[in-house]
Amino acid sequence: MDRIHTPSPALVIACVALFVALGGVAYAAATIGSPEIIDGSIRNRDFKDGTLRGQEAKRNGFGGGAIKESTLDATQLDPNDIGKVKDAGVADGLSRQAVVSATGTMARNRGATSAARTGEGQYQVVFNADVKACTYFATLGDTADGAPPVGEIAVSSLAGNANGVLVVTRDSTGAATVDHPFHLTVSC
């Protein structure tokens, strides 16, 4: 007589649990979509590294704080507005500079509108924006490739003009003002 083997109660329960678990995952995958996900409930840590690519993100799909391509327009930047970045030099803080000859003629510049010799060893350099709250750095230096002169140099804000810098050059003893070429950098 053949004996029919009946599964043990433990095996029956294990199989039922397996089918329920597989069915639940399949059901969730088939029925849960974007409308069922609460905004902000999925975080970066919920994604496995390397699983998201650019094609998964739709254009302008990262919320109201995301940068939209249409807002990136360099023509809207005003080079005269000290609060906006014109180029990498401005971003680094080396926004304005001038190289001035001993006669007060500007040899080259960035952001300077004029330079003038106002007296022996005294110069004023005017920039295209308010530089009163900036830092000034000046050094004696030839305007081309000649040897730099020997002497001293001092800088300060130009009285009565927030866009200007006063530069004074002296001999090597510091006693007398003398005309010298110089390089001036204004960092804001």
Outline the structure in words.
- The protein has two domains: 9-69, no CATH class; 88-187, no CATH class.
- The model has no long low-confidence stretch (mean pLDDT 80).
- The protein has helices at residues 9-31, 88-91, and strands at residues 96-100, 106-110, 112-119, 122-127, 135-140, 152-157, 164-170, 182-187.
- Helices cover 14% and strands 26% of the residues.
- The strands form two sheets. It has a four-stranded antiparallel β-sheet, with no helix packed on it. A four-stranded antiparallel β-sheet has the order 3-4-7-6, with no helix packed on it.
- The protein is α+β, with helices and mostly antiparallel strands.
Question: What tags apply to this protein structure?
Answer:
188 residues, alpha+beta, four-stranded antiparallel beta sheet
Structure summary:
The protein is α+β, with helices and mostly antiparallel strands.
Give the helices and strands, then pairings.
Blueprint lengths: L8 H23 L56 H4 L4 E5 L5 E5 L1 E8 L2 E6 L7 E6 L11 E6 L6 E7 L11 E6 L1
